[in-house]
C-alpha cells in the first residue's frame, strides 16, 4: 500500500467525545449548503451582539457586482467578544500564556488582566487622537503587547494592519502608504533565537521614505532595552502612553461590515494587496472553526505557533481562541532555540493539549532525527494541526508518530489570508484521515474543481480549486482597490471565487491541495509573489533582467530560485551573488532570502517576448528531460545554456 492510501480512522476517544461526529458533520454540512441563511443565522448566536442582526447573507460573486455582506445590520465589538463577555465566568482564567524566546521567561495573563491592559491602551490610543476607522500599523515581536495593541484597536474601532516583523523597511513603508496609517506601534527590538531584531530601526528607516506622509506618532514598547534612535516630535514610549489611563474603556459598537483589520499578502502580480476583513462574519467564523476543527474544550491549553503578522495568528492565536474563552499560548521564539527540542519542552512546560504548526517546522525537526523530541514527553497533547502549505505524507507520519506519540489526530487545514478562516480540514471526531489530504470542506464551504477553460470537473480529478459561494469570514475587498479584488478572484471563472490553488479530489471526495497554479510561491509557509522579487532584483543596477521561480526544497517546501541576466559588460562573481542576496533581503525582508542564483546570459522567451516560466521551473527542479514543447521559443539555444549551468542537481 502506498503511503498516500493509508487511512487513519477517527479514534475511539474523538468519536465518543468530540463536538462533531460524522453523522453530525453530514447533517450540518447539508444544512449549511442547502440553507446557508438559516444555518448562519443560528451560528451567529455564538457571538455577543450589541444589536441583533435581522439579515444574514447578502453576497454576490457576479463579476459586475462583487459584493459580500454578512449580518449586515448587526452591531458588535470584536474585543468585547474576546474579553468583556468572559469576565464574569473566567476573569481569573489564563487568556494568554506567553513563552519568551529565553526559556526562562514566561508569564500568564488572565482574562481580567488582558481586559485591563487592552482598555488602558485603547484609552492611550484615543489620547493620541486615534478614531474609529483610522488605520494603525503594528510591527511587533511576539510579545503580549502585540495582542493588546490589536485588541485595543478593535475596541475603539480603529483598523489594525499588522506587518510581520520579518519584513524590510521598504515593505513597511509600502504598507503604511497604501493604508494611510496614522500611528505605528513597534518595539525597540524583538528577540528571536537568542538574537535581537532591530524593529524600531526598521520603522525609522521606513519613515524616511518621502511618500510616507500620514504617520503622526510611533509608539514603542521597551522590550529588550537595546539602544535606539529617538525622535522627540514623533516617538512615544508605550509605558508613557498608558500612564494615567483608565483601565475601563467602552467598546465601540461596530457595524458587522465595519473593517476589523487589513492584512497584506502577495499575489502573482503587482505590490502586495491589503485584504480587508470585517467584523461580524469574521468573528462568527473564526470562533466556530476554532471550536470544531480543533475540537476545543473548556480548559484546553491551545498553542498555534504562527506569528500574529500572518492571518493564522489573527484568526487562530487571537480572535478565534479568545472569542471562545480559550487559553492561547503565544511564543516569542523559534522551534530551534535553544535546542530543537524546544517545541516539545514548551508542550510539557505548559501542558499543551492542542498544537497547531506548519509543515516546514515539522520537516526541520524531522531532519534532526527521532531523538529530537527526547527531552519532552508531550503526554498532554491530544490533537495536532498543520497549516500553510501542503504537508507531505512522510512529514505527516513523523508528526503523528514522534511529536504526537502516535496518539493524536492531525487536522491539515487549508485556507488563505483571503478566506479569513479554515476552509477545508478534517473534523477530528468525524473525518478519517489520509496523510497529505486536507480532506473535506467545513460547513458552508463549497469547493469545486475547474479546468483551464472554465468547465467544472466532476468526480475524482485534478483541477483548479474554486469556492462556489461566500462564507462569513471572506475578505470583502482589497483596501483601496475593489477593482483589483474583482479581477484577482472573480474574473478567471465567472460566478465563483478562484483560490489560485491546484487540487486533486479522490474517490472519497477528499481534497488534496497540490500548490499554487499562479506565480505565487510558498517558502516555509510564507507566501511570496515571484513578480515582487523580480522587481526588487531589476531595481539593482547590475541586473538587466531577472526571473524567479520556486523549486522543491526539503525543508522549506519551496525554495527561491533566481535567474539573473547581468547588465551589459558586467562579469558574474561570487561577490555580486552575495550582494544580490543581501539586496533582496533588504528590499523585501529576510523571509525572501534567495536560495539559488543562476547567471543567465539569456532567458527563454516566446517570440512575443514572454518569459517561459514553465521551462525555468523545470530546470530549477532539475527535471530537464521533461521540458515539453519548446518550439515557440525565440532562441532555443538559451535553454541549453541554462540546463548546462543549472544549480540544483
Ligand atoms: C496559501 C495561502 C492560511 C494559512 C496560512 C497561509 C497554501 C495553506 C495549506 C494546506 C496545502 C496550503 C495554499 C494557499 N496553503 N494551507 N493545509 N495545504 N496548501 O496563508 O499566506 O494566505 O497562503 O497557502 O497555497 O493558497 P497565505
Automatic annotation (TrEMBL):
The protein's matches in Pfam families, at most eight in alphabetical order, are given as:
ACAS_N, AMP-binding, AMP-binding_C
Q: Keywords, A to Z?
A: Acetylation, ATP-binding, Ligase, Magnesium, Metal-binding, Nucleotide-binding
Single GO cellular component term: cytosol
Identify the residues that bind ATP: 388-390, 412-417, 501, 516, 527
Entry's Gene Ontology BP terms: acetyl-CoA biosynthetic process from acetate
> The AMP-dependent synthetase/ligase domain covers which part of the protein?
84-468
What are the binding positions for CoA in this chain? 192-195, 312, 524, 585
**Record-linked SUPFAM superfamilies:** Acetyl-CoA synthetase-like (SSF56801)
Similarity field:
Belongs to the ATP-dependent AMP-binding enzyme family.
NCBIfam families referenced in this protein's UniProt entry, alphabetically: Ac_CoA_lig_AcsA, PRK00174.1
Q: What job does the chain carry out?
A: Catalyzes the conversion of acetate into acetyl-CoA (AcCoA), an essential intermediate at the junction of anabolic and catabolic pathways. AcsA undergoes a two-step reaction. In the first half reaction, AcsA combines acetate with ATP to form acetyl-adenylate (AcAMP) intermediate. In the second half reaction, it can then transfer the acetyl group from AcAMP to the sulfhydryl group of CoA, forming the product AcCoA.
Name of the featured protein? Acetyl-coenzyme A synthetase
Can you name the source organism? Allopseudospirillum japonicum
Amino acid at each position: 500500500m502506498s503511503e498516500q492510501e493509508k487511512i487513519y480512522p477517527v479514534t475511539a476517544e474523538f468519536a465518543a467525545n468530540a463536538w462533531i461526529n460524522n453523522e453530525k458533520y453530514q447533517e450540518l454540512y447539508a444544512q449549511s449548503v442547502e440553507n446557508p441563511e438559516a444555518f448562519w443565522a443560528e451560528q451567529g448566536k455564538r457571538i455577543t451582539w450589541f444589536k441583533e442582526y435581522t439579515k444574514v447573507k447578502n453576497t454576490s460573486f457576479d463579476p459586475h457586482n462583487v459584493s459580500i455582506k454578512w449580518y449586515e445590520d448587526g452591531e458588535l465589538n470584536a474585543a468585547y467578544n474576546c474579553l468583556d463577555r468572559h469576565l464574569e465566568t473566567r476573569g481569573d482564567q489564563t487568556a494568554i500564556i506567553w513563552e519568551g524566546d529565553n526559556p526562562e521567561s514566561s508569564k500568564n495573563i488572565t482574562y481580567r488582566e488582558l481586559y485591563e491592559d487592552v482598555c488602558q491602551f485603547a484609552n492611550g490610543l484615543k489620547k493620541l487622537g486615534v478614531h474609529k476607522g483610522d488605520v494603525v500599523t503594528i510591527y511587533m515581536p511576539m510579545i503580549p503587547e502585540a495582542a493588546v495593541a490589536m485588541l485595543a484597536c478593535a475596541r475603539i474601532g480603529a483598523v489594525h494592519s499588522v506587518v510581520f516583523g520579518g519584513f524590510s523597511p521598504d515593505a513597511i513603508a509600502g504598507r503604511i502608504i497604501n493604508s494611510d496609517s496614522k500611528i505605528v506601534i513597534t518595539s525597540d527590538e524583538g528577540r528571536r533565537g537568542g538574537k535581537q531584531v532591530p524593529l524600531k530601526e526598521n520603522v525609522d528607516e521606513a519613515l524616511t521614505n518621502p511618500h510616507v506622509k500620514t504617520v503622526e506618532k510611533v509608539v514603542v514598547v521597551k522590550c529588550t532595552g537595546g539602544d535606539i534612535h529617538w525622535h522627540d516630535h514623533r516617538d512615544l514610549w508605550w509605558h508613557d502612553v498608558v500612564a494615567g489611563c483608565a483601565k475601563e474603556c467602552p467598546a465601540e459598537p461596530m457595524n458587522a461590515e465595519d473593517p476589523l483589520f487589513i492584512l497584506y499578502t502577495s499575489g502573482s502580480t503587482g505590490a502586495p494587496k491589503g485584504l480587508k476583513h470585517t467584523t461580524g462574519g469574521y468573528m462568527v467564523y473564526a470562533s466556530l472553526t476554532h471550536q470544531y476543527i480543533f475540537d476545543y474544550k473548556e480548559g484546553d491549553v491551545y498553542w498555534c505557533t504562527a506569528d500574529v503578522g500572518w492571518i493564522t495568528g489573527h484568526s487562530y492565536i487571537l480572535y478565534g481562541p479568545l472569542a471562545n474563552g480559550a487559553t492561547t499560548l503565544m511564543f516569542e521564539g523559534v522551534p530551534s532555540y535553544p535546542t530543537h527540542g524546544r517545541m516539545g519542552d514548551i508542550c510539557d512546560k505548559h501542558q499543551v493539549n492542542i498544537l497547531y504548526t506548519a509543515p516546514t517546522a515539522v520537516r526541520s525537526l524531522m531532519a534532526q532525527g527521532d531523538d529530537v523530541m527526547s527531552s519532552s514527553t508531550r503526554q498532554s497533547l491530544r490533537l495536532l494541526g498543520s497549516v500553510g502549505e501542503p504537508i507531505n505524507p512522510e512529514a505527516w507520519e513523523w508528526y503523528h508518530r514522534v511529536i504526537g506519540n502516535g496518539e493524536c489526530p492531525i487536522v491539515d487545514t487549508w485556507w488563505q489570508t483571503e478566506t479569513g478562516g479554515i476552509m477545508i480540514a478534517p473534523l477530528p471526531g468525524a473525518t478519517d484521515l489520509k496523510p497529505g489530504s486536507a480532506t473535506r470542506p467545513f460547513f458552508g464551504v463549497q469547493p469545486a474543481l475547474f479546468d483551464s477553460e472554465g468547465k467544472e470537473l466532476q468526480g475524482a480529478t485534478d483541477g483548479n480549486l474554486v469556492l462556489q459561494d461566500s462564507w462569513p469570514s471572506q475578505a470583502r475587498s482589497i483596501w483601496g482597490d475593489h477593482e483589483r479584488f474583482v479581477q484577482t478572484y472573480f474574473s478567471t471563472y465567472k460566478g465563483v471565487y478562484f483560490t489560485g490553488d491546484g487540487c486533486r479530489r479522490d474517490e472519497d471526495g477528499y481534497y488534496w491541495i497540490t500548490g499554487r497554479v499562479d506565480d505565487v510561491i510558498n517558502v516555509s509557509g510564507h507566501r511570496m509573489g515571484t513578480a515582487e522579487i523580480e522587481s526588487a532584483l531589476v531595481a539593482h543596477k547590475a541586473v538587466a533582467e531577472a526571473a524567479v521561480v520556486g523549486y522543491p526544497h526539503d525543508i522549506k517546501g519551496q525554495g527561491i530560485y533566481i535567474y539573473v541576466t547581468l547588465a551589459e559588460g558586467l562579469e558574474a562573481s561570487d561577490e555580486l551573488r552575495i550582494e544580490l542576496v543581501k539586496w533582496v533581503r533588504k528590499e523585501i525582508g529576510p523571509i525572501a532570502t534567495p536560495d539559488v542564483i543562476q547567471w543567465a546570459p539569456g532567458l527563454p522567451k516566446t517570440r512575443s517576448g514572454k518569459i517561459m516560466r514553465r521551462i525555468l521551473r523545470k530546470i530549477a527542479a532539475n527535471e530537464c528531460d521533461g521540458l515539453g514543447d519548446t518550439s515557440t521559443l525565440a532562441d532555443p539555444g538559451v535553454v541549453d545554456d541554462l540546463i548546462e549551468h543549472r544549480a540544483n542537481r
